[in-house]
Each structure stands twice: as structure tokens, then as C-alpha cells.
Amino acid sequence: MLMKSRIKSIFDKVEKDIDSIFIYNGTKPHLDMTFFYVTGLERGAFERCGIVLYPDGSGEMIISSLEEVAAKQSDIPITVFENEVEKCNWIKEKLSSTNRIGVNSKELTQKGYKEIKNLTNAKLVDISESISKARKVKDQKEIKIMKEACKLASEAAEEIGDYIEPGIKEFEIGANLSYLMKKRGAAGDAFKPKIASGPNSAEPHYTGGRRELKKGDFILMDFGALYRQYNSDITRTYFVGDITEKQRRMYNVVFKANKTALEMIEEGIKANKVHKSAEKVINNSEFKGKFIHSLGHSIGLSCHDGSGFSPSSNFKLEEGMILTVEPGVYIQGYGGVRIEDNILVTKNGCELLTHASKDLKII
């Protein structure tokens, strides 16, 4: 019944006239996570597999023999194909009686699009925005899984300080974080950990290299846990051995921006107002103009799950949305501070899902 409600949720948000929806995977990394959203499957790759969805909330899967055991964990009927000819014949049969088919253009490869186009005379209609809207609001099962993913990352953030000392390399910290999450039950990293020390921390998307930590360094750690197909995303910035007054002021401003944004979040508020509240805190300080990215993004089956907090985000927050809140200050050649949390939007505020301490930490 849960999967049926997810499928219906997508159709409810489609404003265009369609008869069915076809979700079609490429090969890794080109998998449409909507496949896992509507099936509820938590394991398996399902490369080159697909699912047809119908307005009544039902669906039918076409899967390879490699995925047969995993696919049976879903209550959606399956057909196993042995070769490409069998798969194409199945797709052609299922789509032959439809005139307009919804597809997720954001995740569909060009090759996949051409294959579908060659197997049906129906018009292919892009419904990617409707899918994004459906996936943005999490159901209770998703929320439970996301809370555990956040717990795994938060616990790793609390423990990683025991592994950090002058002389350790950035990539070693990333490896330790991965280990700490996996030993607690994570399937892996949500993404490649971004471990940035010293002046490297001024680059928001820097990934860990071979630089050795030195006394007085910033150490910015952006990482997350993959758990039952869902992702968490947390950032904590610590300091190694010592701290300057400027570093302390940077941290305190970012901490205040994080706190201000969290206090603004509630159902019904526009996402851009939350971004602007954090930006205002930073721009009213000596670090004006040093917050150079959006405040956060929605997160779930994908790390960036379709929307977020930015100056142009005009949508209203809804109960059940899960997003990141991650203000930062970056000074090239010097260093950067970012504090990132995952939050669940509630009717009257938000629930903090990442519980690692945000107190200024000197290791």
C-alpha cells in the first residue's frame, strides 16, 4: 500500500495529460532513484531495468535475472528478461496501448530516451518536476530511514576527533570517517568525503588530498552515510591545536547563521527567506560577501534531491521535507568554515536530525 501511495502521489502532481509513466535505468551511475522510490527496494543495482506506473497506483517491473531475488522484496509484479530482445518486446507491449507516456527526463539518458522512442508511437512527456515534488515530501518510512542515516554520520562526527592530530593526511581522515560510519551499519558513503584542511577549506567542493594537518589549521569535514538507499549530509569544522581570534569570529558568525536559519524554518515559509536570513547574518559581519553558495538542498534518495534553500527558491516549505542547512564563510588563501545540518520540516518549526555537537572544537 505504501508504494501505491507513492505512485499516486506522482500522478497527483502531474499537471499534463498522461496515460502511464515509464521509469528506465541506465547503467551506474545513471540510475534513476525514482525506481527505488516507487518500488521500495533497498538493494540491487537494477541496471537497464524499468517500471511502468499506472494512475491507480499499480506498476509492473521488467528486470534482469541478476535482480530477481532482490526484486521479489517489492509487492510490484515482475517480469524477468534473459536478453535485450525479450526486454524490448515487453516494453513495446506495455507501452503500445498508451498515447502519452510520462518520463523522468532529468534522470533518463539519451540512449534510454531513444530506446523508448523506438519502441512506442506514444508521445513522451517530461514529468521530472512532478516526480521531484513527490519525492521532496517524505513519508514516515523514509523519515525513519533518514533519521538513522543522520545518526550514523553524527556519531562519526563526534568520534573522528580521536583520529585527528598534526601530521595526519586529509585522505586518512576521510577513510576513518567512512570506517566509523560503516562499522555502525552504513552501506557506504553518501558521496566522496570532502576533507579540507588549512587554506584548502576555503574551497567549498574540495575533496581530501595528501596535505598533512598542521597546528592552527581549519579542518572542514563534509560527509554523509548511505543507509538503505538514503543519504545524510553533515559538515563540521574543527581546529587543530590552536585557534586565532579571526578563526573564532568566523566560526561564531557561521554558527549564528546556522542557528538563525533553523529558527526560521516551518511549514509555509518560502525557502528563499530562510536563505536570506542566514546570508544577512554573515553580510552584517566583517565577512560580508564570503557566503558564496546556497544555504542548502533537499536530500533523500539522492544527495541533491531536487530543490533547496537559495535566493531564487520561491516554493513554500511543507511538513515532511528534509533539507540541509549549511551556511559558510570562505576566505581564499586563508581558510573556511561551514556548519551543515539535516532538518525535517514540521508544522511549527523543524526537527534537527544531525545531532553532532556544534560547539567550537579544538583538537
Give the tags:
363 residues; alpha+beta; 3-stranded antiparallel β-sheet; 19 strands; elongated
Task: Write up what this structure looks like.
The chain has 2 domains: 132 residues, Creatinase/prolidase N-terminal domain (Creatine Amidinohydrolase, Chain A, domain 1, 3-Layer(aba) Sandwich), CATH 3.40.350; 213 residues, Creatine Amidinohydrolase. The chain is elongated and about 70 Å long. Helix content is 33%, strand content 21%. The protein is α+β, with helices and mostly antiparallel strands. The mean pLDDT is 96.
Model regions low in confidence, pLDDT < 50 over at least 5 residues: none
Total E-strand runs? 19
Instruction: Encode the helix/strand succession as letters.
Output: HEHEEHEHEHEHHHEEEEEEHHEEEEEEE
Strand content: 15-25%
Number of helices: 10
How many domains in all? 2
Query: What characteristic shape results from the CA principal axes?
Result: elongated
From the coordinates shown, what is the CATH architecture of the largest domain?
Alpha-Beta Complex
Strand order of the largest sheet: 4-3-2-1-5-6
Which class of the largest domain in CATH terms? Answer: Alpha Beta
How much helix, percentage-wise, in residues? 25-40%
Gap from first CA to last CA? 49 Å
CA-atom Rg in angstroms: 22 Å
Structural class: alpha+beta
Largest sheet: 6 strands, mixed
CATH topology of the largest domain: Creatine Amidinohydrolase
User: Would you tell me the overall average pLDDT?
Assistant: 96
